[in-house]
Amino acid sequence: MGTLQYAFKAINQGDCAVIVTQEKVPDKLLDSSTVTHLLRITENMGCVMTGMTADGRCRVQRARYEAADWKCKYGREIPVDVLCERIADSSQVYTQNAEMRPLGCCMTLVGIEEEQGPQVYRCDPAGYSCGFKAAAAGKFDWTFGHGFKPSEIEVGVVTVESPKFRILTAAEIDAHLIALAERD
């Protein structure tokens, strides 16, 4: 059974939301521990950014602002779908003005909602946002094969039991990769 089949089986269990990204270091002179595409937005929500790093950081900063503003106004965490829609709306503005270039990044958000459980949403540079049960983005968005080393991928997780967004350590990733390999 392929890795994607296991992913779809996990989706049906509905107790967590997981994001995985390949850890790519654009320059050999960079310290790989400082390069990440997996970021925390709030205590219970995280994201993975695909595309241009600077544009992604800009979107993350905006998402953190929107989340903090919502919490200040309403006294609770912003829902994942609402945050994604707000980020998509602000990204869409960049496509309308000649003096602004469209952002070259895609944001995939994960979080746990009290009523709906695990949530996965994605917004693109055109301003389109949508919820997913499973999603992939990037150059090889349809492939996720075996042979990855724990140092080559980053994994972020939120679960119903522990709704705080956390990034798995290399040892935890290795344990999951071994478990997946043993299932085959």
Q: What would you say this structure looks like, in words?
A:
One of its GO terms (cellular component) is proteasome core complex. One of its GO terms (biological process) is proteolysis involved in protein catabolic process. It comes from Propithecus coquereli (Coquerel's sifaka). This is Proteasome subunit alpha type-6. With 184 residues, this protein is of the alpha+beta class. It has a single domain (3-183), classed as Aminohydrolase, N-terminal nucleophile (Ntn) domain (Glutamine Phosphoribosylpyrophosphate, subunit 1, domain 1, 4-Layer Sandwich), CATH 3.60.20. It is built from four helices and eight strands. It has helices at residues 3-13, 53-74, 80-93, 170-183, and strands spanning 16-22, 38-42, 45-51, 105-113, 117-123, 129-132, 153-159, 166-167. The strands form two sheets. A five-stranded antiparallel sheet has the order 2-3-4-5-6. The protein is globular. The N and C termini lie close together (6 Å).
